[in-house]
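Q: Hi! First time doing this. I have a protein sequence and I read that you can turn it into a structure. Is that right? Here it is:
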Amino acid sequence: MAAANVLTTRETAVRAAQAKDEADIAAREASAVALRLFDNNAELVSELLGVPAEELEREAKPVTAARAKEIIETVRARAERPRSSRPRRSRAEAADASPPASRAPAPVVTPDGSRADAA
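A: Yes, that's right. Below is the predicted 3D structure, encoded as structure tokens:
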């Protein structure tokens, strides 16, 4: 049982390390994309994100310009894709469909089955 516990713990640690690596890559790519979108103005991006400019530049450095451009194009393509959603009703249609609200207080039923006044 102890050996199974060790194996499970190791597998969990490996998965956690892989997730961390993926998150680090995503953070570096996001930094590079943000800088590229703002014409490499690290000071502006730094102010917008509240992250030191040096940290942004350091994070973005390993990401190639081609990869940043590829990510930007992917995001733009995704944004241009039509979304499948329910057709929206106008406010007038929605108001007509809702039941009228009663101004009278709702009756309250007590535990013994008798009715009590809500007010």
